[in-house]
Amino acid sequence: MQINLITGISGSGKSVALRAFEDAGYDCVDNLPVTLLESLITTLEGEKSERVAVAIDARRGQSIAELPQILENLRRNHQVRIVFLNADTNTLIQRFSETRRRHPLSGKTQQTQAATLIEAIDKERSLLEPLRNQAHSIDTSNLPAHALRSWIQDLLKDKPQGLTVIFESFGFKKGLPSEADLVFDVRCLPNPHYDKALRPMSGKDQPVREFLEKIPEVVSMENDIIQFIEKWLPHYIADGRSYLTVAIGCTGGQHRSVYLVSCIIAHFLPQKDLAALQINFLSRHRELDSIPAIAI
């Protein structure tokens, strides 16, 4: 059975992600107590279910500490993937303010005073940290709901086992992606932004590609990143990782980084020797994907 655990910081988009799994035909359960997870899987096995997505958060406090061992038990007979959704604290505060919802850990108990929102977020981060370290992490700080759904749909095309390498373009002016394992700064390369004809385009457009591919420094940067990844991939596999996010950033995340991500993943996808090692490749463009969809 394919088991997908959706977890992360409250307000980071777990409900959106769960709906994406549901739309893809998964059996979905929201806010499941940790202690009931194994019983649920046993029940679904009896019903011949093949794919399930379960959302679990830290609202039940310390019981979340039992989850890593439970998942390890489930991995003996099932494919288990953890999807961890995160966002920066300022974004979370804004979202809770807009929705007027209370954080699940901000409630007052008989022993303690009610926690402030920031205290509740910090406590939740601490409780969930062991899960984040072994999960596919997505930073939704600058990501609208439609983009998160699209990223989840891309993830569902990926095989749950093996190493998944994500190449992500981003703009430094909006901050580093929190899920990045490796970061390459390509702001030193010539910028198509200063060409008025190319400014409104992206690194996916042919005129921008033709502009960049003629520059020796761009070609050299592309080759250097590819060689670095090829050299160190076996070491990341040996380390037992499930996910590796390679972030490539330029100033705005529109031209140079998008172009390089597109070129680099095109290099890796056809390689059969890497497929034999169960390495899966995904690409995404944080700033381009954050552009709101136009209603028609």
UniProtKB/TrEMBL annotation:
Keywords: ATP-binding, GTP-binding, Kinase, Nucleotide-binding, Transferase
Residues noted as binding GTP in the record, renumbered to the chain: D57, A58, R59, R60
Gene Ontology molecular function, alphabetical: ATP binding; GTP binding; kinase activity
Binding site for ATP: G8, I9, S10, G11, S12, G13, K14, S15
Gene3D superfamilies listed in its UniProt record: P-loop containing nucleotide triphosphate hydrolases (3.40.50.300)
Record-annotated RapZ-like N-terminal domain positions: 1-157
Superkingdom of the source species: Bacteria
Domain RapZ C-terminal, first and last residues per copy: 164-288
NCBIfam families: PRK05416.1 (NF003828)
Protein name per Swiss-Prot or TrEMBL: P-loop-containing kinase
Organism: Polynucleobacter duraquae
Lineage: Bacteria, Pseudomonadati, Pseudomonadota, Betaproteobacteria, Burkholderiales
